[in-house]
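Much of our argument rests on the idea that a fold can be written as discrete symbols. Part of our work consisted of pairing the sequence of a single chain with a tokenised description of its backbone. We regard such an encoding as a compact summary of how the chain folds. The amino acid sequence and the backbone structure tokens for this protein are reproduced below.
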Amino acid sequence: MDDKTRNEIEAAAFRGLVKHLQRRTDVQNIDLMNLAGFCRNCLAKWYLAAAGERDVALDYDQARERVYGMPFSEWKRVNQPEATPEQKAAFEETKPLHAVISGH
């Protein structure tokens, strides 16, 4: 497989993941972090980093809007309840397994 085709396939896979996460608003970021070590915010940070590597002007809010499909503040207001004490405890326990880009 040549690099152009690989890049196109990887980009399509990323778009599929983003679309899936946009539909699954019932899946909370904290649950993603606790189970998989990354969340929508991590995806936005990877997206932002990739843009920066290519000298594309983009800020974190714009990257999050790309991943969330709407401004983060709106997504949070509509879809994100307060984390439970159990979710918060699991988050702390799983921190060593979180994606490096998450900042945790």
